[in-house]
Amino acid sequence: MQTSDFHYELPDELIAQFPTRNRQDSRLLHLPAGAQEAVDRQFTDLPGLLNPGDLLVFNDTRVMRARLYGQKESGGRVELLIERVLQPEQGLAHIKASKSPKPGSRILLDGGGLLEVLDRADDLFLVAAVESDLPSLMAQSGHIPLPPYISRDDEALDVERYQTVYSRREGAVAAPTAGLHFGTEMLSLLEAMGIEQAHVTLHVGAGTFRPVRVDRLEDHVMHSEYVEVSAGVCEQVRATRARGGRVIAVGTTSVRSLEAASQEGEIKPFYGDTRLFITPGYAFHSVDAMVTNFHLPESTLLMLVAAFSGYDRIMAAYRHAVERRYRFFSYGDAMFLERIGKV
Question: Least buried of 148, 169, 217, 324, by fewest C-beta within 10 Å?
Fold first, then answer.
C-alpha cells in the first residue's frame, strides 16, 4: 500500500485544543465487528459495550516534563525535548536552535539548571545535567510537551489532564491518549462489573508524531519505543482467553505492547525496545477490541487501526467522524473498535 492511501481531509477547527470539562464527556464512535457502518455514542456508553470477564489493558506510562527552554552560553535560544532518560545524569534529546550546538557546549535553562551537550547521533543529542540530574531539572524547569498540533503553550490544566489517572511509570514524551477518557469513577464501575484490568508500559516517544516520509509502507523505518509486558499480564491474557472473554487494549500503545510480546504466536513476558510496524495484512495475536482516539492522516497509528478493523471500514469511519464534527487527536473524542474475525 501507499502512504497516500491513508490521507483524509481534516478541517483545522476539528483538532481539539483543550480537554473536555470532565474526562468522560467525549463522544465515542463505535465500529462493531459485524457492521459496516459506525454508530455514534457517548464515552459513558462504553461500559454497556463490555462484558463481565473481559480484560482491559492500559498503558501506565507517565508523561515527563520533557520540554525545556534555555540559551546557549553564546546567547542563542534553544528548545529541548528530552526523548529518553538513560541514567539520572544523562539522556537523549531533540534540540531546536538557529545553529545546532556542538559537543562540549552548555545550555543555561530557563528556571535554573545547566546542561552540557556530549555528543550527537542523527537527530538526537546526548546531554548531561551539570551538578544535578535530569529528573530534577525537568521537575524544576520542564514543561508538559503538548503535541505539535495543539497550537498553544502548555497551561496548568495540562499537568493533570495530559496524564491518565493511572499513570505511574514516568518516561513518555506523549500521553497514551485513549486512556485520558477514563476517570476513577469509570474504572471503579468497570471493576464492579467484573471487567478485569491489567497494565503494560510503553514509553511513547516523539516518533509517534513523525510523518511517514516514504511512498511505500514497506520502506518505512519504524521508530523505537521501550515496552514492558510482565508475566502477570501474560497470565491475565491467557486466563481471559480460557474463560471466553475479550482482550481489549486501551490505546494503540497497549496494542503494540501486547503484540510485541506475542510475535511468536503466544504472549510471553517482554522487556525491551520494539519497532513493530502494524499495517493492513498483519495477523493479530492478542487483541480482540480497542479503545482509541483519532489519528493523524498518513500516520503509522492510522495504519495500525486500519489493520485492526479493515482499511475501507476505518477510512469510512473517519469520513463519518469529520462529517459529524467529532473532535480529533489527543484531547479529542474516542473510538471503540471491534476486530474483524478471531485472534
Answer: 148
